[in-house]
Amino acid sequence: MTVTTIERLAEHTDQTVTLRGWVYNRTSKGKLHFVMLRDGTGFVQCVLFKKDVPEELFEAVSRAGQESSIELVGEVKADERAPGGYEIKVTGGRIYQLVEEYPITPKEHGPDFLLSRRHLWLRSRRQWAVLRIRDAVITSIRSFFDERGFVCIDSPVFTPAACEGTSTLFEVDYFGDEKAYLTQSGQLYAEASAMGFGKVYCFGPTFRAEKSKTRRHLTEFWMLEPEVAFADLDDIMQLAEDLVVRIVQDVLRRRRPELEALERNLATLEKIQGGFPRMTYEEASQILLDHPKSEFVAGDDFGAPDETILSALHDQPVMITHYPKAIKAFYMKEDADDPTKVACVDMIAPEGVGEIIGGSQREEDLDKLLASIAAHELPAEEFDWYLDLRRFGSVPHSGFGLGLERVVGWIAGIEHVREASPYPRMMSRIRP
Ligand code: 4AD
Ligand code: MG
Question: Which residue of 28, 29, 163, 400 has the lowest C-beta tally within 10 Å?
Answer without folding.
Answer: 29
